[in-house]
Input
Amino acid sequence: MSSWVYTSVDSVRGKHQKGDALWVHGSNSKRTKTSESGEYTIPSNPKTPTSGHSTSSRPIGRDKAKRKGKSKVTQSDSTNAQVAAELHALRLAQDNENELVKARLQIEREKLKRPSMKMYQKMLIKLLDKEHLSPEDQEMKHRLMQIVFGK
Output
């Protein structure tokens, strides 16, 4: 680990990396050794920039990309309003459907009550046909009249 720290020039870019030459697009920017002392020279190629600046631009940085992303938020306000309107319409449709389901359930409950009402009416008629009623029958007649006539 310590040998790496001593041999590298920068913690991000090592001694043997090319630096700005990495960003050159479409050109050959390799250096060649010309002397025994280890000096490097850049070959004289007309396609290769000699000033060290690349002809193509570097990729955008983190902060610029962040600013670019934040600027798009204002453009999506109309999209958000459109989505909100669609959600509202969907909610209204679901509310209407729920009301229909409630109405159907109410109709089903009424259908289920009808046979029991008929049964209560038949029981009341039988009790009314009797001449003499016991106290239990009198109480039953009173309850059935409340159920059937709602008194």
